Amino acid sequence: MSWKRPSEPVRELIRQCAQITVNPRAEWLEELDAEVLTASPALAADPELAAAVGRSNRANMYFWCAANVRDPGAPVPPNTGPEPMNIAREVARRGLTPFTLDAYRIGEAVAWRRLMEIAFELTSDAAELHELLDVCSRSISAFIDGTLAGIAAQIEQERDDLTRGTHAERLETIALILDGAPITRKRAEARLGYALTGPHIAAVIWSDDAAGDMARLDSAAESLGHAAGVRPLTVLASTATRWVWTPTRSIDVAALRDSIDAMPDIRVAIGPCGDGIDGFRRSHFDAITTQQMLARLRSPQRVARFADIELVALITADADRANEFVHRTLGDLEGAGREIQEFVRIFIDEQCNASRAAARLYTHRNTLLRRLARAEELLPRPLAETSVNVAVALDVLRWRGR
Fold first, then answer.
1. What span, in angstroms and rounded, lies between the C-alpha atoms of 5 and 147?
2. Domain named PucR C-terminal helix-turn-helix: which ranges (predicted)?
3. Which of 51-55, 205-209, 229-233, 278-282 has the weakest average pLDDT?
4. Residue of 103, 238, 282, 388 with fewest CB within 10 Å of its CB?
């Protein structure tokens, strides 16, 4: 593409635009993330991939802006840094089509709208605006095209690398089992090195820091095996995710929490126990549901079992209606603070037995009763009439982390 250097006044305007957007406001980034996830439901349902695309969109914005601060109006080379290349690995290792690349076009549109707003604030000269917007439009489009081409090439390279190893065979076998394909149990067991009879508990282990040390994921999978007392089956689902199965009926969750305490970016979602191939499959899907709920609620909890979140996952599937339910059920108790909410939650959990609840909270019974009396003042309706709904609403708050 031939590239005509813009006039000096327009170069200076481009530099000013880039200087403003190279350090974007928090609300700009929130808008970028929101529009990308709203337009890509499949992306929003995958917390790891959504986070990776968000990081890559922000890296692209910074890359283009920094280039135009240095040399305003000059062509910007493709971004082949770690963020977009990580997207290529994620797409390839999940066996996906490059549908996620559409998120870059959405990000491009959001950034372009913001840049136009800034441009109109900097000048009202029609000729300068025309030249500025023409140059920036062509520059951004060429930059995104080049970056996407680089990602596409890397996806093909990653796929080629994967098909040469045993990883591809394991992942393919898991995919066949999860899809209910007619693969025989003996063949699947031979390819996985894992018995599909008996009990299974599935888990999803992932990292919030895709650029971090992924060896911690394997350490966490080993810790899960120790907590279950067995050797687990571990599959590399993506760069920052491991799918794990343990042939056991229980996992010592407290021991697992202790083991991963030193790995603050590691999170674990655990499915229920199931038997045979159907249980292997069902436990995995429930672990995925648990992971998705943690992501949807932006929960600070690092280890979660499906058995503990099943009802909350159902309630929060529609975020707006879930928020309305919490507001309507708790009233002023919603903003009353974690301590009083926990007193009420434990009281209900102990079947409204004050003595048992006080013992569990390591507090005096009279202290508990005072907290409950205060809660009654804050609730829209008496606790005795709404204890089930209040318990569910408080559980939503607990997992939501606020």
1. 22
2. 343-394
3. 51-55
4. 388
Q: CA-CA distance, 3 to 68, in Å (whole number)?
A: 15
* Residue pair 244/203 in contact by the 8 Å Cβ criterion: yes
Q: In DSSP terms, which residues pair with 235 in a beta bridge? A: 243
Domain boundary among 267, 292, 314: 314
Q: Is the pLDDT of residue 277 over 80?
A: yes
CATH number, domain of 47, equals 1.10.490
> How big is the chain by its Cα radius of gyration, in Å?
26
Q: How many domains, in total, are found in the chain?
A: 3
Domain presence at residue 201: yes
Share of residues in the chain with pLDDT > 90 (%):
52
Do 256 and 114 lie in one domain? The reply is: no
**357: in domain:** yes
Reading the block at residue 295, the tokens are: 């992501």
pLDDT over 60 (residue 131): yes
- Rounded average pLDDT over 215-222: 87
Residue 180 lies in a domain: no
Is 182 within the bounds of a domain? no
Rounded Cα gap, residues 22 and 16, in angstroms? 10
Helix (H/G/I), strand (E/B), else coil: 259 = helix
Q: Which residues pair with 204 in a beta bridge?
A: 243, 269
Same domain for 291 and 338? no
Q: What percent of the chain is predicted at pLDDT more than 70?
A: 93
Which residue intervals of 71-125 are DSSP H helices? 82-94, 102-122
Q: Are 199 and 247 in contact (CB under 8 A)?
A: yes
- Supply the pLDDT for residue 2: 64
Q: Is 97 helix (H, G, I), strand (E, B) or coil?
A: coil
Per-residue pLDDT at 63: 93
Quick one: pLDDT band at residue 327, thresholds 50, 70, 90? very high
Statement to judge: residues 265 and 363 lie in one domain? no
SS3 content of the chain, % helix, strand, coil (to 5): 70, 10, 25
Task: Give the model confidence (pLDDT) of 98-108 as tens digits.
Answer: 555 777 888 88
Same domain, 323 and 296: no
Strand order in the sheet with 199-207: 233-238, 241-246, 199-207, 266-275, 303-305
How far, in whole angstroms, is CA 278 from its chain's centroid? 27
Band of residue 298 on the pLDDT scale cut at 50, 70, 90: confident
pLDDT grade for 288, boundaries at 50, 70 and 90? very high
289/185 Cα distance (integer angstroms): 25
Q: Are residues 184 and 206 in contact, defined by beta-carbon separation less than 8 angstroms?
A: no
